[in-house]
Structures are given as structure tokens and as C-alpha cells.
Amino acid sequence: MNTITRIKNDVNGNPRRVIHFLAFITPADRKSAPAYGLGGWYELALIRARKLGGKKFHNRQYGGGIVFQAYSDDEVHALVARALAEADKIANG
Known about the structure:
Number of domains: 1
Radius of gyration: 13 Å
Oligomer: single chain
Helix content: 40-55%
Number of strands: 4
Largest sheet: 4 strands, antiparallel
Number of helices: 3
Strand order of the largest sheet: 1-2-4-3
């Protein structure tokens, strides 16, 4: 499982959690590494995460993070699983 970091609440008091962008990269994406490169993977991960409410995390303490408004780590893991399932569905037709 990927490590999720709890960060400060947003301005409205809602809890937030950050996960590394590589959690959104499938094994098929990893095989095509030269085609995407690390920057391409990050953009691909952001596209997948934004569909589920994720946002780019702008902070030095956590490079390459995607932030979600979530009350538990399980919520974030479920969102990642959903994004990867959708990516597999698209890739396999």
C-alpha cells in the first residue's frame, strides 16, 4: 500500500490527505516509461486524480503529492483503486 500523509485541514476545517503521484501509475504505464518520462507520469496521475477530486499539492515537504479532502486513509485508498480500475478499463478496451 502507498503511504498517505495527513496534512493540515483546509480553510473550512475539512481534513486533507496527501499521497504520492506514483500511486496512480499502472504497471502498463511503467512499461512505457520512455514514452512518458517522469514528468509525463505526473501529468497522467494528475489527470486521473482530478477526476476523483484530487489536486496538485504545492509544498516543499512533499514533492510529487496529490491531495484529497478525506476523513480517512481508507477513503484515499478507495479513490486510488477506482482510478486504477478506470485506467485498466480504458487500456484494455
